[in-house]
Amino acid sequence: MASARAVVYPGSFDPITHGHTNLISRALEMFDHVTVAIGTSLDKDPERYLHDRLELCRAALAEFGERVSVEAFNGLLVDFLKTRDTRFVLRGVRTLTDYDYEFQMIEMNRMLYPEIAYVLLPTAHEWSFLSSSRVREIADLGGDISPFVHPAVAKHYRAGNTASR
Ligand code: PNS
Questions:
Q1: Predicted confidence (pLDDT) per residue in 18-65, tens digit
Q2: Distance CA 160, CA 89 (A)
Q3: Which of 26, 67, 94, 158 is the catalytic position?
Q4: 20 catalytic per annotation
Q5: What is the largest CA-CA distance in the chain?
Q6: How many domains, in total, are found in the chain?
Q7: CA 42 to chain CA mean position, Å
C-alpha cells in the first residue's frame, strides 16, 4: 500500500490564488508532502503559458519549502497518480456546484483506478467566493488582483502577461 503521507493536488491553477494556497497549508497538517499537479493539454496550452503557471505556482508556494513541489502533467490524472508514491488526491470545494463536479470526477476516476482516494476540503470561509476565472477577468479588465493572489502573480499580470490562452 502506498504511503499515506503524500497527496497530489491537481488543478489548472490558472492562476494560483490565496484559496489554493490556504488549502495546501491545511493539507500539510495532514500530509507530509503535497505535489501540486498542473493539468495541461499540450494541444490547447502553448508551452510558455504552462511555464508561467509552473513558475507562478513555485513562487507562490516557496514559503512551504520542500514539503510542496509543483509539476505539470499531460494526460489522465490517474496515470500521473500511478507514477507517484500515493493514491491520495486533494481537492477544494466551495459550493454545491463544486461538489457535483467533484463527485462526477471522483466516480469516473474510481472506475479507471479503484485505489484512488480523495480528500475533499471545504475552502476557507474567507476565500469561498474566490475563483481563478474571476481573478483572470479582473486582471484582463485592468483591475487590482493583489488581494487575491501572491505578489509574484499580481506582478506577472500587472506586466500585461497572462498565464493562459
Ligand atoms: O482546477 P480545475 O480546472 O478544476 O482542474 C481540473 C483537473 C486538471 C483536475 C482535471 O481537468 C483533470 O484531472 N484533468 C486531467 C485529465 C483527466 O484525468 N480527465 C479525466 C477526469 S474524470
A1: 999 999 999 999 999 999 999 986 566 666 688 899 999 999 999 999
A2: 33
A3: 94
A4: yes
A5: 49
A6: 1
A7: 18
In a domain, 1, yes or no: no
CB 90 within 8 A of CB 119: yes
Is the model's pTM score more than 0.90? yes
Domain that holds residue 13: 6-158
**11 Cα: distance to centroid of ligand 1 (angstroms):** 6
Inter-residue contact 124 to 90 (CB < 8 Å): no
In 3-state terms, what secondary structure has residue 122? strand
Ramachandran area for residue 89 (φ above 0: left; ψ -120 to 50: alpha; else beta): beta
Dihedral sign for Cα atoms in the order 70, 76, 78, 79: negative
Q: Which of 53, 84, 132, 156 is flagged as catalytic?
A: 132
163 located within any domain: no
